[in-house]
Structures are given as C-alpha cells and as structure tokens.
Amino acid sequence: MASNQSDPSLTRSSFSPSDTAMLEALVPGYTLISRFFVSYLQIDPTAYLQYFVALAVLSVSLRYIYNSVSGFFMQHFVSYAEIRLDDELFNHVMWWMSRQSFMQRTNHFVAGVKTNGYWSDSEDEGSDEDSADEDSDIYDFMDDETEIQSQANIISRKKYKPLKFTPSQGRHFFWYKGRPMLLERQQQSQTARWALYNERLFLSCLGRNSSLIRELIDEASKEFQNRDGNKTIIYRAQRHSPGDSFNWLRCMARSPRPLSTVILDKHEKQTLVKDMRRYLCNRTRRWHSNRGIAYKRGYLLHGPPGTGKTSLCFAAAGALGLPLYLLTLNSNALDEDNLYTLFSDLPNKCIVLIEDVDTAGITHSRGKTGTNRSKGSDSVARDTEEASAEDDPPLDKSEKDGITLSGLLNVIDGVASSEGRILVMTTNHADRLDEALIRIGRVDMQVFLGYATQENIKDLFTSIYMPMEGDLPNNDKAKITTKWSNSHSTEKGRNDTEKKEKKQKEFWDHLESLRSRIHPLAAEFASIVPGGIFTAAEIQGYLLNHIDNPELAIEGAEAWAQVLQESKRVREEKFA
Q1: pLDDT > 80? residue 18
Q2: Based on the domain organization, do 515 and 396 belong to the same domain?
Q3: A single Gene Ontology molecular function, please (predicted)?
Q4: 57: Cα separation from own chain's centroid
Q5: 532, 528, 141: which is closest to 543 by C-alpha?
Q6: Which DSSP state fits 332?
Q7: In total, how many domains does the chain have?
Q8: Percentage of the chain lying above the pLDDT 70 cut
Q9: Rounded CA gap, 299 and 272, in Å?
Q10: Read out DSSP for 199-238?
Q11: Which domain holds residue 221?
Q12: Is 1 part of a structural domain of the chain?
C-alpha cells in the first residue's frame, strides 16, 4: 500500500491535463521535473507554482522600476559625453586615459605595444630613440671595448617595445579634479562579422553641469596635440577592412624637414612657400569670398624620379606648420563616393598630396573609368585618341568601382569641392596628364624639379657634411663631462673620464676643422661630379655611404659617376 502511494503514476495533480500541457509548453521539461520532485523529494511543485509566478512578476517589476529610476536619474542628474571611434578625438581620450594613475590600479585593461590599436605612432618610441642616441654619442668618447659592450646593451634594450595599457570593455570609475567620473567603453557588433572598429566611449559625471567633462576632453586633446610639438602630422587615406569606407587615419608624426635640405633653386623654393603663405592668410580668404572666387590652391611638382618632389612638399608642410594628407588614386577600392567623403573631411588648412598622379589611368582620359588603371601608357594613349575631345561618353552605371577623371575634377574644382586646402600633385611625366586636370584654377603653379646642377651639388654636399646644432643631443661639453664624472667616483672612473674628455675634445676639434673646410670640399666634389646628369637622390645615396668621411667621398666620386653614367646609358639603349 505504501509503495503504491509513492508511485509517481498514482500522484494526483491539482492541474488539469490541459493546464499541464500549457505548463509543458511554457517550461519545457516541466512534467519530468515535477515527477522528480514528487518521487524523490516528496514535494509537489504545483502547490508552490503561484509563489514562483509571484516571484517572477516581482523580479520583472523590480527590473522595470530599476531601469525607469536609473533612466530618470541618468537623464536628469548625470551628464555624459559620447565619443565615437570614427572621430580623431577617440584617440586623444584613449591616449590620455592610458597615462592616468587609475590605469596602474585597474584589473581590467587591454595590453599591447601601442597606446591602442587605432593609431600607429607612439610618443614613447621617440623618447627611447633620443635616449639611445644620446647614449650612443657619449659612447663615442669611450674605448673600443666599452663602446662595443654599450652598443650591445642598446640593441638588446631596443628589441623590446614598451607595453601600453588602455581601459578594456566595460565601466571604469576614476577621480578627476576631486570628482568621481565614469568611463564606459562599448563595442557595437550588430553585424554578423566582427565589428572591431565600431567602438564608443562614454564619459559621465554626477550633476547637470557638463563643464567637467568638457574640461577633461579639452585637456586630453591638448596634451595629445602638444606631445607632437612642431612635428608634421601625416595622414593617409585608408580603410580598416575590406568593405569599409575610406577615412583619414593618422599614420605618423615626423620632425619637419628644413627647406634648405631640399635641393632646388632657392628662388623657386622661396616663391613656392611665399605663394602658399599668401594663400593661407585670412585676408586672402576674405578676398576670395568677397569676389565669389573659390578659395583653393593647386600645385604640380613634376620632374624625373628622385629629384625631391615629395620631399619639397613635406618640407613645405613643415615650414607652414600644416598637416599632410596622402592620397593615392591607384586603389581599385577607392570610388568617387569615398573620394568625395575624403575631401569633405579635410580641415580648412592642410596640404593634400597626390603622388604620381600620372600612374592612375584616369588622368589620361576623362571618359575612362578606374578599371583602366592597369593598362599601359600606350593603351591609355589609344583610348584617349578614340575618346571624343568635347563630349564625355556615357558611363556604365553597373561599374560602381573606380574613379573617372570627371569625378576627380569635380572633387578638385566642382561646386561641392572643399575650400581652404592646398592640393599638391606630383608626376614624373607632366605631358601625359589631361589638359583639363592641369589648367589654371586647378593647378595654379607648376614647379619643375630637374637634375642636380653644380650649385645644387654643392648645397647637397654642404647640407650632409656641415656640422649642425642638434647633431648631438647635448651640445654642452661640460654637461656630458659632468654626467660621466658623477657616475664614476672611483679612481678608475676618474681615469675613464679623463680619456673621454680627451676623445671628446678631439671630436669637437674635428667638427670645427670640418666646418671651416666644408665649402672648399663641396666645390671640389662639384667639380668632379657633372651637373645636369644625376638626381639629388642618386648623389645623396652615394654621399651617405661615406657619411663620416667627406674626403673619401671625394676620392671615389669620379669612379662612381662614370659607373652610374654607363649604367644609365645602357638602360636608355635598352628601352629606346
């Protein structure tokens, strides 16, 4: 009888079969669970079901109340700012956050060899290099054995990049100016593929006054920009992954190149930079606006390869303190929509550099699409002859990829083109460009950079071998001596210091002697190397092989020039 009472099949349920079927549909496995509780625990779940329902209703209600109250509190008593990844400010804030003290205490962070994964240059790498360079210069005053060991230590130390830590996904609390702040890093991944670059930052603080958040963002942005000093910031048109749109991504910050190091006629360099300065003046902008003239300026730098076209543009950007934006038209993934977007995102004052514009097939014929970029110059010339000189052929609507010359011209000089920027195009063959691309209004000045003249060769030799301030990180001899004296207080240390001082004096005497002899040496080198034959890059490459010995460079100049001339002659005959 007792065994019959414990049999699950004899247990009577307070629910009808239809109710049990409904529970089974709502809670899969309800029947099995119910039998388990009745058989082994002597508990009928149906007797407590109303309590479970009440608990579930209470949980949902509490969650609803919490969301409503927290939403109301966040809306009326909390200020927050949203920063998106596609804005450069994201990098500024992330860099600033990585340098705060709370990042040393947090246990949720992203570790890497960069400050984060969204810009390539690191502010610490430059300081490491400067420190290593300073040590290397001091090692010049050591004995050979000590110098070899010290250089080995430098190489070993520079093999490892310093680790950087940034906040991970989630919430991070920290203090700023005595007030609590919250940083929340979110990653949006609604798409099927991994959305690595779809991130957002949220900065929030208590109170309806958002001035504290604005101060933090302003401080982060200023510190990020101040770390560059007078460096030239270089951006490149890139996309994060296939299928994404093109954006300007910061790729590096380089020390400005002096215009004096660019081998070009001084008058032409001064004319170019002076014209750019005049264009950037606010008075020029108002003048264009009052007369309804588009506020744009274009330059074409043309000449043989290696004559310094890109170097001149980079030096001009450094002299004017402008960022440099690099763009190539050879990418098949770059279409006209992306090109319009890139130009519309340019700041008011910057330099846009389109290198080797003649290599993009679109610049030969207005009616051809970007699919013709892979054709040779002869094929492109035939296409140009076949195209109508006055009317553009209809474009194939199915071909969405690539850029047409008409699209490029509209971006440069169309109604919707951006204003305030300086456009610089470089080419090795200016005669291959369509006349519409280089007409006045689109290209306002053309600068030809040819082979190095006798005067250019002198200037190049002088710029390489002339001792300059800053060649040594520490030009004060007393400071270097003091540094070594403090680190060597023993008798052996004092002897080493005396040797270093002696070598240091010999080194400075060598620099002074070279400074006084540099101009006669430059004239002698220019008399050996013929002018109008070699490019500045070729001469510079030769001189860099004898960077510490100008006399040796002069001795081998004649043989080097003959060999290079012969190789050029053979190459010309081969392609004739």
Answers
A1: no
A2: no
A3: ATP binding
A4: 54
A5: 528
A6: T
A7: 4
A8: 70
A9: 9
A10: EEEEEEEESS--HHHHHHHHHHHHHHHHTTTTPEEEEEEE
A11: 78-226
A12: no
